Amino acid sequence: MSNDKNKAEKQEENEIEELDEETLFVVSQTFKALSDPTRIRLLHLLCEREMSVNQIADTLELRQSTVSHQLRFLKNLRLVKYRRAGTTLFYSHDDKHVIDLLQQTINHALHH
After folding, report:
1. CB atoms within 10 A of CB 46
2. CB 46 within 8 Å of CB 91
3. Which residue, 75, 76, 77, is CA-closest to 92?
4. How confident is the model over 24-67, as pLDDT tens digits?
5. What is the pTM of this model?
6. What are the E-state strand segments in the chain?
7. CA atoms of 53 and 65, how far apart (whole Å)
8. Spatial contact of 28 and 64, defined as CB atoms under 8 Å apart
9. Distance in angstroms (rounded) separating the CA atoms of residues 56 and 6
10. C-alpha 17: how far from chain center
11. What are phi and psi of 90, to 5 degrees?
């Protein structure tokens, strides 16, 4: 019986599909986004609540242009989204999976 089980496990391992180029690119870009301290701070802040560019800039003590640049990068990866209220854009996180990954990584770092 265990021999049949080993055969089945080996067959499953052989059936694992390679990642396609698009998936590899998106994964690498997501990790690139999470490799920058400013973007980590920004995403961590947006875990708590939605905020305008000015609120983010004030809270993180960054220039508005820096915040806008980073938000554009994160928006292109669909990691943040925005809603418009009059002339103000309010940003929030857009991908719970990435936020969970960020939180787990923060917890890991705090654990050591």
Report:
1. 22
2. yes
3. 75
4. 999 999 999 999 999 999 999 999 999 999 999 999 999 999 99
5. 0.78
6. 51-52, 80-85, 88-93
7. 9
8. no
9. 54
10. 24
11. -110, 125
Tokens 């067959």 sit on residue: 11
Helix (H), strand (E) at residue 42: helix 37-48
Q: How far apart are CA 49 and CA 92, in angstroms?
A: 7
DSSP reduced 3-state for 1: coil
Q: For residue range 56-110, list pLDDT tens digits in order.
A: 999 999 999 999 999 999 999 999 999 999 999 999 999 889 899 999 999 999 9
CA 112 from centre of chain: 22
Q: Report whether 98 contacts 79 (CB < 8 A).
A: yes
- List the structure tokens of 9: 């496990």
One-letter amino acid identity for 87? T
